[in-house]
Amino acid sequence: MRRHRLWGMQEPVEKQSSALSKIALLAGAGVAAGALVAGIALPAVGGAGFGFISATNEINLAPEELVEPPPAEVTVVEDSKGKPIARFYEQYREVVGFDEIAPIMKTAIISIEDYRFYEHGPIDIEGTIRALAKNLQAGGVAQGGSSITQQYVKQVLLNAADTEAAKNKALEASYARKLKELRYAMAVEKKYTKDEILAKYLNIAYFGASAYGVEAAAKRFFGVRADQLTLPQAATLAGAVQDPNATDPNLGRKQREKLLKRRNVVLDRMAELGKISKEEAEEAKATKLGYKGTGLPGGCESSKYPYFCIYVRNEILKNPDFGKKAADRVKFLNRGGLTIKTTIDSGMQAAAEKAIKKWVHTSDNPVAAEALVQPGTGAIKAMAASRPYGGDAGKHEMAYNLVADAAHGGGIGFQAGSTFKTFTLIAALNKGMKVNDGFNVGAGYTAAGYSTFKNCAGGTAGDPSHTVTNDEGAPGWRTLQTGTWGSVNTFFMTLEQHVGLCEVVKTAKSLGIHRSDGNKLQEYETFTLGTNEMDPVTVANAYAAIGARGKYCAPMAISQITDRDGKVTTYKPKCRQALDPEVADAAADVLSGVFTRGTMRGVGGIGRDAAGKTGTTDSYATAWFAGFTPDLAGAVSIGDPRGSQTHKLNGVTIGARYYGVVAGASIPGPIWKDTMLAALKDVPPTKFTPINAARFGGCGQSCQPAPPPDEGEEDRGPGDNDDWRSEDNGGGGGWGNHGRENDTGGNGRGPFG
């Protein structure tokens, strides 16, 4: 095959003094030459067509240093193992080195844009004279005279412009701009070799179809790297830079036809210059355009893990650590060329997705969401939901982050139900109660007065007009253990009254609990029944702290950021001791009995130490399960995003199964179990630290007698649907109304609802 004739890339470049002497001669020649030098190929200005300038006073030929902010580059987001999962960018660009660009691409761009590039200095005098003649003949701009160096300068100035006014100034048709560009070009030619300038130009130029730089353009147009470009492909890209918007192949047939014609012009020019033969030019011109329109690697919409991706994006956009102003943070993310390594584990993510898919279908109205968090670090290992992320309702897509709070792209969340009873349990243990301490409770609970409960501001929060019930009654003695295992509403209302509402609220806050919508926690008497709206990440992270023996770590999604220059910043967990370790051990011991003696006994455990709590809200509006091992914690929610209070989980078909009612052990519990079995398959089990029996009494749940079978209010096995009858959550009534953990009547409005 014939070797294409290339320019001698290493040949000596003419001395700057030679070019400057020619410019000086032209400048001394008078008005016409002055206009030529200062306003190369500009449109007519004023009646005469060219302005008058003083060659001696106005033309400053001294080089001026060009500030070169790095061009916007793609930021790549990776999972915990370094595999890309998303990309963010303002301009899709991947900067490559000179040797990573096909030689034929360099030849093509020089042939059409500046064929004497390796022979002249910052300005091509011969090219400028030629352009002037053409423009004078045409009465306007028919041909440009800018060198590749000047074009690079122009692109740098345009890239640095952060306002529309600044962009317009970088493009304005004025002699002052052309003079300034020339001075910058002189400095650039002193600073870099010709090879370096050419590489910089090819990396900054816009080629159309949202592709900036030759690497992105090669991938976008033809699905290849820049070093793999063929002759027709290189000619196409070289032709595109002149007017990338007019020849944008992504816009339609007319634009592609224009691009094809422009490609052929480039091929003819290359043949005219002897860089390829006429036969090669004709052969290349006979080929089709070959535009593939390879999809741009996009943001969260196209990520395999969209909800986690949204979380990461918001972590940067709303964190002052990444820029004092919002605009600075956007620039940092979208233009920085960063490599962001995250905490997500692809295996654990797959486990969560598979478990959710098994129990809830994409087309179901209710939506399931799950988050997995590592105890002791707060690292988010998975964020999954039953519906895809996006804006197409016809495809059942969700336009917000189902798994996280509003600060991370989420919505208002769902009431967390009896998962909040755990915080009351912890507050009681912290206050000195033993696991077998308890109360005689009735079938209903009514506050004695408004001052029975006080919020953390000292205000009254009781509601003597409202009675919390257990449906079928079940008065009797309940302890921290049996009350938790059966999730008895009246017991926890009594317990919350005993330890104090504010103490329960403080305990929850110490574990990172905050409302999903960003508002303040509602501190009503029914706080322990979970009337506040939550998101899976927040709940999972709170339970992870118990699994870490009371060590709370803020949710963590980013572990490392490498900037475009290779500087690595590592982010460590932000942790604090939120609970007395022995209190956390005691809570874990009690909560582990939920699997063997409580509301999850119909679902069963996972073959290793595990603890958790079911959650079902008033009238089955939403359902939850939150659980943990020392190695991994998770929370699962299910509710109807159309409005959980108006579209409750009664008489619904989910995952092709009919449910008379959906409780925490109906769907969320099995999802959690299936997820954990797969996610922890290759993780050696870690045991809980045994309870301090001398401090908390008893010898732990393992030696307690099993409660009678009517103890669990929501002990519904996943396979029996509505035929699996649940006993009342207080321990009586057997075949009643399936028992409500959170019988507040609140409909999301607290006890006065």
Automatic annotation (TrEMBL):
EC number: 2.4.-.-
Sequence ranges assigned to domain Glycosyl transferase family in this UniProt record: 82-270
Transmembrane intervals: none
InterPro entries referenced in this protein's UniProt entry, alphabetically: Beta-lactam/transpept-like, Glyco_trans_51, Glycosyltr_51/Transpeptidase, Lysozyme-like_dom_sf, PBP_transglycosylase, PCN-bd_Tpept
Span list, region Disordered: 695-753
SUPFAM superfamilies registered for this protein in UniProt: beta-lactamase/transpeptidase-like, Lysozyme-like
UniProt GO MF annotations: glycosyltransferase activity
Reactions catalysed: Preferential cleavage: (Ac)2-L-Lys-D-Ala-|-D-Ala. Also transpeptidation of peptidyl-alanyl moieties that are N-acyl substituents of D-alanine; [GlcNAc-(1->4)-Mur2Ac(oyl-L-Ala-gamma-D-Glu-L-Lys-D-Ala-D-Ala)](n)-di-trans,octa-cis-undecaprenyl diphosphate + beta-D-GlcNAc-(1->4)-Mur2Ac(oyl-L-Ala-gamma-D-Glu-L-Lys-D-Ala-D-Ala)-di-trans,octa-cis-undecaprenyl diphosphate = [GlcNAc-(1->4)-Mur2Ac(oyl-L-Ala-gamma-D-Glu-L-Lys-D-Ala-D-Ala)](n+1)-di-trans,octa-cis-undecaprenyl diphosphate + di-trans,octa-cis-undecaprenyl diphosphate + H(+)
Domain (Penicillin-binding protein transpeptidase) ranges: 372-642
Keywords associated with the record: Carboxypeptidase, Glycosyltransferase, Hydrolase, Multifunctional enzyme, Protease, Transferase
One Pfam family recorded for the sequence: Transgly
Biased composition (Basic and acidic residues): 715-728
PANTHER family reported for this sequence: BINDING PROTEIN TRANSPEPTIDASE, PUTATIVE-RELATED, PEPTIDOGLYCAN GLYCOSYLTRANSFERASE
The protein, known as: Transglycosylase domain-containing protein
Organism of this sequence: Streptosporangium algeriense
